[in-house]
């Protein structure tokens, strides 16, 4: 009744008002673009709405060296293993860890503050050399070790030079940290620099085969700075302990850091809780006799543990079983995403292969559990749906030549899709025939005549070739 009482004036006023508002928005957008060089709506969407819709990415604690590892891949294959989005996130991390508000007081630190913001790798390296020409600078050595050094040995030498400078700066700022906010910020920056250098030195030792030395360095670092967990040093320690096959210490570290959202430990700690898949899921089994005890599929705890492991491991079985090609891990990862699975498999595949029969049991368990995944996923009680933005975030983190995995992806059979399409098409034809009987009749006659046109043409040709008497007898039959 309300809609029937509306007059044409209402629609004219509604159209005029919407046009006026659209015009004002257009004028404001044009003015804002002329003044600031960017769109206001786009800026608000990227700055405020996009973080709410996107998945949070995390720093990869086992990230490789750009100069000694990522660049080598580029030299050999001609492909870029890192995306601009990934490197931009790393640049933001570097500015957070290695700069402070008082950098302008020291010329070398002022140069490095600009260097961390440079997009061009060669410009960053040149700026680091300029800073070293003025004075010894720990962050300049860090940048050169990360991006200019072509081998791990060269990177280790540069990090050792950075360590001497970083320790002296740390001791100096430690004495002045309570003298004001400026000195406190300097001490925080010097602490981050020192921890980063020691952690990367431990990783160099690990890569050069000195695993026990790396474990000692990581343990000492964790004792010296127990509250500094942003670098996730315990994950580097876990990987080194797995290499030494020191599984008791691995479980001790997992028990200490259980409950924290970490890259490797989150998945391993979930797998450790499995009833009889403890060492298999993690690659921590020490005896072949353990693998002979197969879990009971009817056990509720075993089923729940398997579901939890599959949900947490996500795409990792595809890479662990070499069903999908592996690439270099990115510098940032997405929890439960393809990027995290790549990073996990890249560093832990060797631990799985070391255990005889582990990959075979993983193959059977993973396939069996994957069949239990409900469709749609929201109906399940043991599996948690993935955010919609997971695939988008992984696409930005991983290079274009890599095919991003979408999990869980269960394709419908062709018969179900065909039946659904046929039913929909039949229902649409019935509805159109009911509403427009005459028009649909014309369309039906035209369609049938077109469909039988080739048959009629063949029949005419046959009549012209065969004798009329023979054709008459055939038609009678």
TrEMBL record:
The keyword Cell membrane does not apply. GO terms for cellular component: membrane. It holds the Pfam family ST7. The chain crosses the membrane at residues 12-33, 412-433. Keywords: Membrane, Transmembrane, Transmembrane helix. The keyword Transmembrane helix applies. PANTHER family: SUPPRESSION OF TUMORIGENICITY 7, SUPPRESSOR OF TUMORIGENICITY 7 PROTEIN HOMOLOG. Belongs to the ST7 family. This is Suppression of tumorigenicity 7. It comes from Cyprinus carpio (Common carp). The lineage of its organism: Eukaryota, Metazoa, Chordata, Craniata, Vertebrata.
